[in-house]
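Worked example

This section walks through a single chain of length 795. The input is the sequence exactly as stored; nothing has been trimmed or padded.
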Amino acid sequence: MHSPKPPRRKPGPTTAGADSGEKLDELLISSAICNGEDLGPFVRKTFGTGKPETLLHHLKLFARSKESEIEEVCKAHYQDFIHAVDDLKSLLSDVDSLKSSLSDSNSKLQSIAAPLLSSLDSLVEAQTVSRNVDLAIRAVTHCVRVMELVSRANQHLQSGSFYLALKCVDSIESDFLDKTQSSTLKRMLEKRIPQIRGFVERKVSKELGDWLVEIRVVSRNLGQLAIGEASAARQREEELRMKQKEAEEQSRLSLRDCVYALKEEEDDDEYESGLEGSDAFDLTPLYRAYHIHQTLSLEDRFKRYYFDNRELQLKSDSQVSSMTPFLESHQTFFAQIAGFFIVEDRVLRTGGGLISRQEVEFLWDLAVGNMCAVLEDQFSRMQTANHLLLIKDYVSLLGVSLRRYGYTVDALLEVLSKHRDKYHELLLSDCRKQMIEALAADKFEQMLMKKEYEYSMNVLSFQLQTSDIAPAFPYIAPFSTTVPDCCRIVRSFIEDSVSFMSHGGQLDFYDVVKKYLDRLLGEVLDEALLKLINTSVHGVSQAMQVAANMSVFERACDFFFRHAAQLSGVPLRMAERGRRHFPLTKSQNAAEDTLSGLLKNKIDGFMTLIENVNWTSDDVPQGGNEYMNELIIYLETLVSTAQQILPAKVLKRVLRDVLAHISERVVGTLCGDVVKRLSMAAIKGVDVDIQLLESFTEQLKPLLTDKEAKEMKTAFVEIRQLINLLLSSHPENFVNPVIRERSYNALDYRKVAAVSEKLRDPSDSIFGTFGTRGSRQNPKNKSLDTLIKRLKDVS
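Given that input, the structure is written out below as tokens.
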């Protein structure tokens, strides 16, 4: 029978003397223990405060309070426990057998399952590793793809392929950045992508800046090329026009004319496609920068930046430097502007909207206004016609070049037309200065031409050649550098005048050109040559060179008038019809007179040797007197030299003057005070001298016609007739008018009387050769006495 359940024991009172907080904790612990609540918080708190004694105390008290309850419960269930123990004892053997069976099964299971468990562990571990490896491979593959794009972007950056680099960066940002598991790599990419874009923008901006600097030089070269093409086209048109004029002159309107016309069209087509198809300038940096900014979504900002910079460049290009004369810088100035708008035309057509038509027109209006202001200012200051013409021609070529690209140039042409009247007022004065400079630089030496192009430039271009056969090189021309230099000045004058006149649209302007050409030749060149001859020619070689130059100028003047007619579009027959005399006659005569005068002075130097002649000698010099031999040597040398440069007619006139001068000097010597007495042997010696002169004249026959050879001998006819008279058997025949007119018409009776008086001497020293003293007088002496007597009667 179970005893009644004893009443539940309550926890006893806590130890007195603790403070109120400890008492509260003790009450809470007691209550928790009694109620079977979780003691974990109290245990942690107790051990945390380092005072576990209170808890242990309460636990011990609780354990003592439960011992009695356990005892009562055990008493109450004792019988049941005994029966249970007995039942358990009865089951002990079965349990032992079961235990042994389980132990055996467990051993077998352990022995069998141990490898399986090991394999299972390995499998689980392998699966874990596999999953980790898969994750790692995917992460690494992702990173590898990212790094490949990064490496490719770096390569593109290094090679300058910025667009491809930006595409790689965009791909990394859009496709890989969010999926990147590596936080380090992701942070790096997030930091570097904006930096790369900024670097690319700075890089292309720098390249654009370099291009903007470079394009100024390229524009200048491009403008020069375009203007040069326009100049070449104009020249081809002028050449074609001259060919057609020649054809019209010959009245041959045939297939040849058609060929000229077709060639003109082909040349025009070539010009149309010349700059269009050429790689004269590279816009790649500009278009790449534009494309990059489009990729960076900065297109509008780039357009504004480009237009502003180009406008600033145009304003800078439109300014004229005060440090450099405009004449030296005008080609660069206009070529720079021409190249600028050729570039802008290409950008407008191929830039994909980078610049608009309105913006280009705005820039062109700005440039035209600046150019017109510069031209007005510069033309008002110019005092040289050639300078004005050079600038006018270049501006007109600029207009032709840019008109082909659709730009209007009427305002520029109007400025040129305003200054037409000033041009011809300055042209002659400029040419006068050039003529003076060219003549002052003359060294009076024959011009040496080593190459064929020099011959073509200095001879053929002015039609100065005397033969159509090209000479061997090096070639020594008969003229000095003055001739081609002056010819170039005259030709330039003609071309400048025609160029200016033709620009105004006037069709018949040859008379105007011819009028100024006559003034240039008759006033400017002729006066300059006269001044040169009178002030700078001091030697025979110089005078001979100037005389040779004058003969060449005579041919050159024919070319000048033909050239002016051809450029003016006038048929040559009309130009020939209005031809005048040689406009340089004054200077030509002065050159020949100067040469003759200098040669006479040279002859006078040789004639001083005549004082060494023994006029009373009884021996006749077989080879002539010394002075005459020296003269003949000099004359032969002179002729051999003069033949190379002087025309035959000039050489003939000069030689005739020289020979006449020699004759006069010999006659003057015989008549002068130097010779007191004469022997017949001395007269015969002079005869030998005259024979030497005649022999020299005979040597000139290949250069002279028969008529000219006879005229050449008349140069020393006086001395020849005098010697013939003195050597004749009957000198008194001189007083016979008929004989005198036929044989001695060049003699002056006073000179004959003077020489005859010296030949006759009352002493036997002179006439001793005719007879001895006391002998009958020689008939010739008697005739000579008669002559002297009659001449005295006449005088």
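What to look for: The first helix runs from residue 20 to 35.
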